[in-house]
């Protein structure tokens, strides 16, 4: 499900639990006009979840031809890149290793034009170092494998240039049904809230406010609450090409969450409850740093940390 669908699904679940709570149900049952609205909510909610399942099932086959062709090309380039990078790194040719060792999103999470360029460069780097090329490093890449890549590449290019009008309509029955059910459920929740507000705001204010909260569950950015840290040396060692430090341990002490910086010096911890935390930064041969960070809902706190070598 998308984030939006997750939010709605969670809201409907929370609202359903609230109105079926024994005490709350008794208050709702006491208002005759509420019964048909509750019925609409109870009947439509499972239909909505069923529609989401239909959407998810149908969506698997809804990529257009160019996307499917790119997927096949990506799989083969990733396979060969992983296979070949071992030898490139063993030969200490790290520039070449970077050219051929990528994850799938290197091609699939960019524009089609950029994917074409990247795939072409990737393919050429493998081809220039295959077994049949004198002095080539990647002797585990054969002519036949490059020929296979070329066929996939040609297939992708031929399908990518098709006009948009020729692309398959990606709307699904699940999508359309979910949208209709969502509107119905949202209206039912709003109608029920209005009925309860009009009847109980003076006598059961807490109950009414609770219903209002249940129908508008706040999902703002909990997945995007956390910290992003970039680690570098305060005094870079002589001969260092890029002033980044990989493998530095980042720990939010009170949350018992930790990660390590990647080869580009970045590390991130997300999905954190907004609060004040102690951030501990440590690494082999480095002076450990601790500091207090305040994480706000929906915000990724970005920090540039300068590390000092331990004596």
Keywords:
14% strand; 311 residues; 10 helices; 4-stranded antiparallel sheet; flat; 3-stranded mixed sheet; alpha+beta
Outline the fold blueprint.
Blueprint: H1 3-20, H2 22-29, H3 34-59, H4 65-90, H5 94-100, H6 105-108, H7 112-127, H8 143-160, H9 173-200, H10 205-215, E1 226-233, E2 249-252, E3 257-260, E4 266-269, E5 275-282, E6 289-295, E7 300-307
Parallel strand pairs: 1-7
Antiparallel strand pairs: 1-4, 2-3, 2-5, 5-6
Helix pairs in contact: 1-3, 1-10, 3-9, 4-5, 4-7, 4-8, 7-8, 9-10
Mean pLDDT: 85
Strand content: 5-15%
How many helices?
A: 10
Distance N to C terminus: 51 Å
Q: Rg from C-alpha positions?
A: 28 Å
Report the sheet with the most strands, covering strand number, pairing sense and barrel closure: 4 strands, antiparallel
Ranges where pLDDT stays below 50 over 5 or more residues in a row are 165-170
* Strand count: 7
Order of neighbouring strands in the sheet with most strands: 3-2-5-6
Q: State the order of secondary-structure elements, H for helix, E for strand.
A: HHHHHHHHHHEEEEEEE
**How much helix is in the residues?**
40-55%
* Global shape: flat
Query: What is the structural class?
Result: alpha+beta
């Amino acid at each position: 499900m998308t984030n939006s669908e997750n939010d709605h699904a969670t809201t409907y679940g929370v609202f359903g639990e609230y109105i079926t709570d024994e005490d709350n149900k008794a208050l709702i049952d006491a208002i005759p006009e509420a019964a048909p609205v509750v019925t609409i909510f109870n009947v439509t909610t499972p239909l909505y979840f069923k529609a989401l399942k239909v959407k998810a099932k149908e969506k698997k086959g809804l990529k257009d031809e160019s996307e499917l062709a790119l997927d096949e090309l990506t799989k083969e380039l990733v396979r060969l890149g992983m296979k070949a990078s071992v030898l490139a790194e063993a030969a200490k040719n790290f520039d070449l290793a970077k050219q051929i060792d990528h994850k799938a999103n290197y091609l699939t999470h960019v524009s089609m034009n950029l994917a074409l360029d990247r795939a072409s460069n990737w393919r050429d780097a493998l081809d220039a170092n295959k077994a049949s090329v004198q002095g080539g490093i990647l002797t585990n890449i054969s002519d036949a494998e490059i020929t296979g890549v070329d066929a996939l590449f040609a297939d992708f290019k031929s399908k990518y240039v098709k006009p948009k009008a020729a692309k398959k309509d990606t709307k699904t029955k699940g999508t359309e049904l979910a949208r209709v059910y969502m509107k119905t459920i949202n209206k039912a929740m709003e109608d029920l809230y209005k009925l309860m507000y009009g009847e109980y705001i003076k006598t059961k204010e807490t109950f009414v406010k609770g219903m209002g909260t249940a129908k508008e569950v706040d999902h703002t950015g909990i997945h995007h609450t956390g910290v992003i840290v970039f680690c570098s040396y305060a005094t870079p060692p002589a001969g260092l090409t890029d002033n980044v430090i990989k493998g530095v341990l980042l720990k939010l002490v009170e949350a018992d969450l930790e990660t390590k910086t990647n080869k580009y010096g970045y590390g991130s911890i997300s999905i954190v409850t907004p609060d004040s935390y102690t951030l501990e930064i440590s690494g082999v041969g480095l002076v450990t740093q601790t500091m207090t960070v305040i994480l706000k809902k929906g915000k990724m706190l970005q920090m540039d940390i300068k590390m000092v070598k331990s004596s």
